[in-house]
Amino acid sequence: MQLFFSYFKDLVGREVTVELKNDLALRGTLHSVDQYLNIKLENTRVVDQDKYPHMLSVRNCFIRGSVVRYVQLPPDGVDVELLHDATRREARGG
């Protein structure tokens, strides 16, 4: 879990899309993330506005980590080598 937390901290200020377990998808600027992977988004937009019209006025939101299904990262925000190295270190227990 710590691996993901440190990775998401590096994405603060970048635009991400968060899909929730109830199928709601929100796109916004990652403002903060904590060790439980709770996420705060700013400048939030609903991806499927026709399905969730009641969410159109939401501009900032806090998302509990346990309700997140996926987080879509910006294509240039993925440092594959960094993730590989961190995964290897975690697998070795260090």
From TrEMBL:
Annotated Pfam families: LSM
All copies of domain Sm, residue ranges: 3-77
GO cellular component, one term: precatalytic spliceosome
The protein's name in its UniProt record: Sm-like protein LSM2
Known role: Component of LSM protein complexes, which are involved in RNA processing.
PROSITE patterns with a match to the protein in the record: SM
UniProt family annotation: Belongs to the snRNP Sm proteins family.
Main location per the UniProt record: nucleus
Lineage, highest ranks first: Eukaryota, Viridiplantae, Streptophyta, Embryophyta, Tracheophyta
InterPro entries tied to this protein: LSM_dom_sf (IPR010920), Sm (IPR047575), Sm_dom_euk/arc (IPR001163), U6_snRNA_Lsm2 (IPR016654)
Keywords of this entry: mRNA processing, mRNA splicing, Nucleus, Ribonucleoprotein, RNA-binding, Spliceosome
Domain of life assignment: Eukaryota
CDD domains to which the protein is assigned, alphabetical: LSm2
Organism: Olea europaea subsp. europaea
A GO term, aspect molecular function: RNA binding
